[in-house]
Amino acid sequence: MQLYTYYRSTSSYRVRIALALKGLDYQALPVNLIAASGGEHRQAPYLALNPQGRVPALRTDDGQLLIQSPAIIEYLDERYPQVPLLSKDLVTRAHERGVAALIGCDVHPLHNVSVLNKLRQLGHDETQVAEWIAHWISQGLAAVEQLIGDAGYCFGDEPGMADVYLIPQLYAAQRFNIALNAYPRISRVAGLAATHPAFIKAHPANQPDTP
């Protein structure tokens, strides 16, 4: 498999975690989102692969190109079920998917670089942009804090779908100087993930395109 990725992209980060948790080998193909030419994701060669011009994208073993991290992660979980990311219990699965969607659909898109650049184009200064980021990330994490369990990872002793989404969001929170001390459950999960080999392998600091 080949993963088109960018080290600091939280959506790429979550796919890397899923791949690492399942012990799957892949070739990382870095896509520079901040290249002087305007970003490799906006250039014709990458747009020919993914017309949306975003990362991640995954080329499967049989040559199919998949886009959008939720679709990629669900594919990986169904194609390689031996290390499941979702609980066998249907209600718990729904809770796991709920936290993943909260982060992936409601929080992350609002601090995506394209959104932030649009705010700047509309005349908002950097203080206002920072306030926007802090508001939406903090609101999302406050909800997650109430939704996850009191022991282990988000929903059990082993990491799963919710953790795959949460940990990259925490990386983004730290990038934007958002404190996590108000979220003890989330901080517990972060501490566990910090020592887990799959999360370590997937971390932005350990990617081939890290500056």
TrEMBL record:
<dbReference type="InterPro" id="IPR036249">
    <property type="entry name" value="Thioredoxin-like_sf"/>
</dbReference>
<protein>
    <submittedName>
        <fullName>Maleylacetoacetate isomerase</fullName>
    </submittedName>
</protein>
<dbReference type="InterPro" id="IPR034330">
    <property type="entry name" value="GST_Zeta_C"/>
</dbReference>
<comment type="similarity">
    <text>Belongs to the GST superfamily. Zeta family.</text>
</comment>
<dbReference type="GO" id="GO:0006559">
    <property type="term" value="P:L-phenylalanine catabolic process"/>
</dbReference>
<dbReference type="InterPro" id="IPR004045">
    <property type="entry name" value="Glutathione_S-Trfase_N"/>
</dbReference>
<feature type="domain" description="GST N-terminal">
    <location>
        <begin position="1"/>
        <end position="84"/>
    </location>
</feature>
<feature type="domain" description="GST C-terminal">
    <location>
        <begin position="89"/>
        <end position="211"/>
    </location>
</feature>
<dbReference type="InterPro" id="IPR010987">
    <property type="entry name" value="Glutathione-S-Trfase_C-like"/>
</dbReference>
<dbReference type="InterPro" id="IPR034333">
    <property type="entry name" value="GST_Zeta_N"/>
</dbReference>
<dbReference type="InterPro" id="IPR040079">
    <property type="entry name" value="Glutathione_S-Trfase"/>
</dbReference>
<dbReference type="InterPro" id="IPR036282">
    <property type="entry name" value="Glutathione-S-Trfase_C_sf"/>
</dbReference>
<dbReference type="Pfam" id="PF13410">
    <property type="entry name" value="GST_C_2"/>
</dbReference>
<keyword id="KW-0413">Isomerase</keyword>
<dbReference type="Pfam" id="PF13417">
    <property type="entry name" value="GST_N_3"/>
</dbReference>
<dbReference type="GO" id="GO:0006749">
    <property type="term" value="P:glutathione metabolic process"/>
</dbReference>
<dbReference type="InterPro" id="IPR005955">
    <property type="entry name" value="GST_Zeta"/>
</dbReference>
<dbReference type="GO" id="GO:0004364">
    <property type="term" value="F:glutathione transferase activity"/>
</dbReference>
<dbReference type="GO" id="GO:0005737">
    <property type="term" value="C:cytoplasm"/>
</dbReference>
<dbReference type="GO" id="GO:0016034">
    <property type="term" value="F:maleylacetoacetate isomerase activity"/>
</dbReference>
